[in-house]
Amino acid sequence: MRRLLDLSDLRHLLVKGLSGPQMLAFLPAMCLAAYWGGGEVLLVLCALGTPLVYAVVGGFGRWSGPLELDHLRGPSLDRVAQDFLEIARHNGQTTACFQIALPDLDQIEHHFGPDSAQEARDLIASRLRTSLRGSDYVFDAGDTRFTVLIAPGFRLRLDNLLDLGKRLRDSAETPLSIAGTTQTLTTCIGIASSLNFGRNVTAETWLGSASEALEDAVLTGTSATRLWSDRLSRKHQSRHALQHDIVTALDTGCIQAFYQPQVNARSGAVTGMEAFARWDHPTRGLLTAAEFLQAMRERQQMARLGRTMFLQAVTALQAWDDAGLDVGTVSINLSDEDLRDPDLSNRIAGDLDRCGLPAHRVVFDIPEHVIAPGTDDVIRRNIGAIAGIGCGIDLEGFGTGGCSVIAVQQVPVTRLKLDKSLVHGVAASEDRMRALHAILAVSERLGLPALATGVETIEEHGVLRDQGCSFAQGFLFAPPASATDTTLWLTERQGLQDNPSGLQLRRVK
């Protein structure tokens, strides 16, 4: 027969009784009973021994090595996030998560080393903390990102969050002194407020939503801020859903080159075609490059896309030659990923040799930012090698990115491509007219012809022609079209008149 109370049960009851907070409530009574029963000696023993027993059985909390280590390292991001959500839910308050990206930190690490990059991160984290309350948290992800958690409060409305975002941006973008140089960083911010979620939201979902908002801000451009919403989340999911279809689309030829003519601004004669990537998606219809390039990058398929566009453009140019159509050159965009490929120039030279096409008939568009000071040496070598083959180099977006004249002179550029923002509405704005005149004057002094993009009206075309712009491109002449439709357009234009000046221009609304 089992004993009613064995030793283990007795020990359990003893530990439970001695380790609870009720033990402290009974301490005065125990000391008084000891004094009555045994005098002063027993009183002293009880007063000294009871706290010792209390500590041994865990009344003051059990020591744990890992917990102590976590305390020394500071609380984890997930734990603080979950605590803030629970506090906000319990008190009817609001908490918020800010995801902050500073892409330029990569450049600091590349040029000055990891120690300088860590110094920059430490300075930025310190500045962020000075912009916050003592109860808020800043977490350094160790790369180019920081996470800021705002402690629960009653006044975290939309305008308050945007104001705080501006304050955090100003702190992060204050110039830094790194390795004897002054560095100015740009930031993108994604914000997720607990108000946008139900009561059962987890820290993982909340933090992930702020990351979605940040991703949208990064895609928008530098110094952008985005607030998470259901609509933004659907957009994010849609973009990531494209990733699953990208490889198949490349394999099956669903991603095709569309072509837009480039014309002589004075005579109207077609001088070339620019190739644009288009995706004929089975359920979403025709997608522009802007709608799928980010998904293409995330699937690391940019190099394959670049090669696909190159081969299609060269094939189309040869087909136009065979048809007796006069198209001088074809222009192809090179991404940053393309330009970082050490074998890029060799591959281009090999492809041109195999198809028998002269190199000068292929022009490569490079974004203006790749020739800025501190550009990767691989990129500069590739640009020089491509020009050495004999291909043309168009500098895209000239006049909007702050690229210096010295930087342009250090790269073998053959033509300056003016951004459409310089052209739009130029006929009705004196300020735009003066800006365009100044940029075209720089183009003339450098001895580099200018190609204006985004020309949509006859008035804009007239201003460009009068200001001495050499080439023009835009919807006024034709929108981007498939190789088949472009062939029909060329046949009609070049077959209807012997004199290219008879080219009829049309207004596109």
From TrEMBL:
Classification via InterPro entries: Cyclic-di-GMP_PDE-like (IPR050706), EAL_dom (IPR001633), EAL_sf (IPR035919), GGDEF_dom (IPR000160), Nucleotide_cyclase (IPR029787), Rev_trsase/Diguanyl_cyclase (IPR043128)
Transmembrane segments: 12-36, 42-63
Keywords: Membrane, Transmembrane, Transmembrane helix
Source species, domain of life: Bacteria
Domain GGDEF, residue spans: 96-230
Domain EAL residue range list: 239-494
A Pfam family reported for this protein in Swiss-Prot or TrEMBL: GGDEF
Protein's UniProt name: Diguanylate cyclase
Naturally occurring in which organism (per UniProt): Marivita lacus
Taxonomic lineage: Bacteria, Pseudomonadati, Pseudomonadota, Alphaproteobacteria, Rhodobacterales
